[in-house]
Amino acid sequence: MKKAIQISFITMFMIISAVASAQEVSEEYYFQEDRPKVRPFRFGVKLGFPNLIGGNVEYVTPLLDHKLSVSVDYSMLSTDWIAPEEEEGYEDSGDKLEFTYMEGGLNYYLFSPGKGLYVGASYGNIKIEGVLTGIASKDPSRTDSGTGDIDLSHGSFNLKLGAKIGGLFYLRPEIGYSFSSLPESYEMEVVFDDGHTETHTESFDTESSPQNLLYKGLIANIGLGFAF
To answer: What residue range is the signal peptide (predicted)?
Structure first.
């Protein structure tokens, strides 16, 4: 917790310093007549964490000389973990998993309207729902297996540093920090055929590298898209 607070203060200090520097550097820019055209609508795809893979929409508002934008991310992945029906020996196990991520926030472009380096603040929510079958009981005397329901939701406030590189077609790398890091475990309710229920606590692999960084609040992704 102490380390997270230190990182938070350092990140906020860097953002405040960057914004102050941007205001000084860009004063002359406001009076130029040949400023580049701003393409306010952006549609793209992001790959990384916590998005995994999903869509991104951004709109650059006229506020602050077209430097303030609104951004929304959405990802939805679903799998039932079964073999294709054409495959010999196909059998539906009943296992299912759905991952949803939604994030909304503001970006401030530091040096040029709607392009280049920017800082962002956002709120994101991860939701994981699923059904797992064939789960063994914690009671060694039971020989039957149960079905577990996963219902995990996690929200966080995020700070990010990114860059929009390009015009009509663009590249968008981002790094950041989540003030509410991912939980290291989750609880799952397991139901057996005779109605017996158990609560199982499952742990994620938080020690192996590099995914251990994800459980310390790391945000990292890269986007591709077009603007008009």
So the answer is: 1-22
